[in-house]
Task: structure prediction
Amino acid sequence: MPRYSALALLRARFQGARYWKPLWTGRTLKAAYDVVVVGAGGHGLATAFHLARDHGLKVAVLERRLVGYGNVGRNTTILRSNYLLPENHYFYEDSLRRWETLSRDLNYNVMYSPRGVVDLCLSDGDMITASRRGNAMRLAGIDSELMELDALERFAPELAPRRSRRFPIVGALVQRRGGTARHDAVAWGYARGATALGVDIIEDCEVQGLCTEAGVATGVETSKGLVRANRVVFATAGHTGMVGAMLGVPLPIETHLLQAMVTEPIKPLINSVLIYVHPGHGETYVLQSDRGGVVMGGYLDGFPSYTREGQWHRLEEVVQGAADLLPEIGGLRILRQWAGTNDMTMDGSPIMDRVKYDNVFLNAGWCYGGFKTIPASGAACATLVATGLAPDIARGFRLSRFATGHLLDERGGGPFPVRL
Result:
């Protein structure tokens, strides 16, 4: 195979020669489709992929900016199904099982790494809460282990759990099959797979309004013109409130920022995902990326915002928590800080349902769980859109639950209830 220097490749690029083939760009927007999906993030792309593969529909994905520009590229890549409520743990477990085969299904390496998720307990009360969650998971056939210090020391020796700390570690709830995947690869893999199935992915195409006639949606107005569709799906995480305003439907969703940051790369140190909910600094979760950087995150900022700007006080709180947990990383330099815009519902659980019109669908409100649920969300939403009936594991996510009081009160921000 010929080898090219970086300068030769750059020169060839500007001279018009191509050594690579675009995977999804260059598609032409057609006048009409069976389904238009608004939003080319993880959930939108996965929904389009399953609509085309499983239901044979003609689909377009319309994206205001670029594929993967939003939350799918602005998260900490954690995958887990360690939820308490049945409506959540069955859905997240379905997603985790799909993660295990996703690289094969897409024929694209999404770098799924089942390194284990460790929810640390700092008191006997935490252990009781963790055991309740773990028992609920095990009764549902989901892997879960409650570890005391000896077992935790063997599983995560980098923690040195017996080390003297302000908030001593007494044990942990561990899900070995949990872990991480590469966020960019997930977006690229779904975009490539959907395009191969005939889906048109149109970037720089802002949806400006919904077209209706006789109480039915007939298409969308975009910056590139009118596009007709039999069904419309909105999967615009972080901007769902704006979709509600456009449709004239108030939604029980606020947009909050979730901060994260990464250090300079170091040699392998952290073998799993460590989640540390402590009285001093709130929640901190820590993992090491495939490139060696230590990735850290925590709670929401606590106020609505669309800015995606990093907040110094959140960086300070998260870093202090990480340094309390792993003092050896205290001297590392922070390379980058970012924020994702999270759809936060009033009960912390998602919405997958029709909205206002029988042929308009909403896939939103994933709160902390957006990245980890992409595979299951895409399959379930595609089934709802194509057949009109949500699969059993997604029926609890109806919008009507906020009117009837059948809430799924589980924010899912860590191993224990999150109180903002």
Summary: The two ends are 56 Å apart (CA to CA). Residues 414-420 have pLDDT under 50 and may be disordered. The longest strand covers residues 253-265. The first helix runs from residue 6 to 14.
